[in-house]
Amino acid sequence: MTVRSLNLSLALLCILSTPVLFAAEPVVFPRTTIDLGTVVSDVEKSVRFYVDGIGFRELPGFEVPADVATGAGLTDGKPLSVRVLVLGEGPSATKLKLMSVAGTTPRTGDTEFIHSHTGFRYLTIVVDDTKAALERLEKIGVKPLAKSPVAIPETIAKGLFLTCVRDPDGNIVELIAP
Q1: Which pTM value belongs to this model?
Q2: CB neighbours of 55 closer than 8 A, spacing ≥ 6?
Q3: Which of 35, 63, 84, 138 is the most buried (most CB within 10 A)?
Q4: CATH number of the domain at 119-178, please?
């Protein structure tokens, strides 16, 4: 075997043993925000937490008839009454849709830590002022978790703090701010 054929063989071996990543066709989305629907135990308490404590605004909600909710696979014959909260303006604003389903008693999960069970585990909301956010939350009886606020390492984000609180159902809400 010549040096040239050995080099070609090594090059071919490298090519064949290197994983090839194929770029998928880019998908175009008409809106790049994600709305999050959340079943809560007490809609009024949750609306108060997210509006008065965090700073969401409430928009008009909507009703989903039982046949539509069932046909889509959302419920087992029950209608939905949805309260819509929003961060931002316009069609690309983030929406949080809160609902409780009449006649049901949903199971709660272990929400002590984000690793306690699978599923969506926390919301991250960027606010403009940690102190102001904590004052709003304190007015409705919400205190930060553990040693929050804590400085975020400068290698991740310079000059920002992370404050974690729990919503009325025990879900963790992260607030990021100077």
Answers
A1: 0.81
A2: 87, 127, 133, 136
A3: 84
A4: 3.30.720.110
